[in-house]
Amino acid sequence: MKRFNYRKLVLLLADIFIIAVSGIILNYVLELTHVIGTESSKRLLYYIVINIITSVFTMTLFGSYSRVWRYINAKDYLMSGIAMAIGFGLGFLVLWILQIPTRKLFFLLFFVLATAGVLLFRLLFKRTFLVIAKDQKPENLEHTLIVGAGMAGRMILTEIINAHSDKNNPSHVLEPIGFVDDDVTKLHTVFKGVEVLGTCREIPKLCQIHDVKNIIVAVPSCEEEEKRRILDYCSATECSIKVIPYLSEILFSDDKPLITQAKEIKIEDLLGRKPIEFDRERIKSFILDKVCMVTGGGGSIGSELVRQIASYSPKQIIIVDIYENNAYDIQQELILKYGSSLHLETIISSVRDYNKMEAIFKKYRPQIVFHAAAHKHVPLMETVPEEAVKNNIFGTYNVATLSELYKVDKFVMISTDKAVNPTNVMGATKRACEMIIQAKAQKSTHTEFVTTRFGNVLGSNGSVIPLFRRQIESGSAVTVTHPDIIRYFMTIPEAVSLVLEAGAMAKGGEIFVLDMGAPVKITTLAENLIRMYGKTPYKDVPIVFTGLRPGEKLFEELLMDEEGLKSTANKKIFIGNQINVDSVELMHKLKGIRVAADSNDSEKTVELLSDLVPTFQHNCEQA
Fold first, then answer.
1. Are strands 240-243 and 263-264 parallel, antiparallel or unpaired?
2. Would you identify the CATH topology of the domain 142-265?
């Protein structure tokens, strides 16, 4: 701040000196040349003093002393010239009011000479400043574009400018070249020497023209849809993109500098829809003081279920998982966060083992069961269909049967959109699981059985995002199966919140479906992720199309034709119409497929799975 005031004082004193010297030199030259008459010393003193006062006033009013001179442009010189003109005009008016005789030609020449001197000094001042600053600043400054010329954007600019004097501040290498803002009234306005260069639509063009390396999106209060539109423009560049958090997060940020709160753009920001909102009070009343069991509790979905359940004060959480590393990780995370206030049990066990699972049910008497344990990897399950049947179908059957036997209040199964008209073994086994749950719901007198069905989950184990990240970070080509393949996506917290709210509103037998908005093209997802790494798709990182894998569709469906939709209190959650399941026939077919799976007869298992799930079209691709 001291440095800024010093420069301001230098400019102010320089203007006073230039105006005074201009008047004196003009009078001296006219005296030598006899072109026009000169002014008396007294009148010249009036001219100088009054015009210094009025000109400094108008220059201050026009912000000529508030500019950051490394960013000054032609418009700033023009505004300084206009300020001088108005200042001399006011000076002429004051002289007239004071009835001091004024010769117009002399006064005009005085104005021209003084203005030329003021502008020339500013040009020299800027060049001198830039030479000095160049020696003081890092060699590789990163041109930065700020999206949003409102309060947050201006705060960001101020922080960057202040950081230039502190080489320990990581922001000192940022060089703001301008703002963009869709408010047309702000276009070409200037704040601290930095101009609003255009609208958000012009981001790609401006980044190319000005060799921008960084974009900071400083619109913390804008709607999600608007933010995604801006991020789409940003992701079309090769720049590093950071986003200022929501206004509510800024307000409770312990006075941290705003720029340090900027976060890397997340892939979920590009989904094309608003985050789903859930009824947290309903979920809380559902979970509060209940014994909750989560099978597959160490997996990506299961562990998030456990996290969210823990936040609603359950009586006890029982994590059941066959993979000890994941189970241990979530156990330690919760112990670190809640300590002894959370009653937590972590049990290594397989849902295939009926006797072991019965011992767990008998000991802990869960009131709510969330069944997330399953084999979910499509290509792998194609090679060992009997394992998918053993784990998915009969693991689900075991847990559902025990839930009914031990009078669990609610059983919530996690399903997938791949269960609808499945073309792969994994999807077919999940549809069989849905049929088991619906059959249980038809005859259960106590337990309310419910299914939640949703699309792909960003960042979950086996999803495309972790694979794409590994490929980009290792310098490999990104592999996409087909250029036109599309998928519905949701975030892990959204998926889990759906499971919890569905469980809270369930009456038994429903299949809850989330309105996931428009599907996302996997190719576009890959391109955006590559850009987020500051690279150019197809140039820096190739995208290779490998062809559809066995059992893979071009698109997934969330509903079977006969299900239809029924709305719920949450406008983003729907219920598929219940389909009657013949329990006797289902049990007969399950016995047959169990024999084939236990015999590890892959071909027979798939054959019987096709009979069990009539909509299963194995090795068929749907375009």
1. antiparallel
2. Rossmann fold (3.40.50)
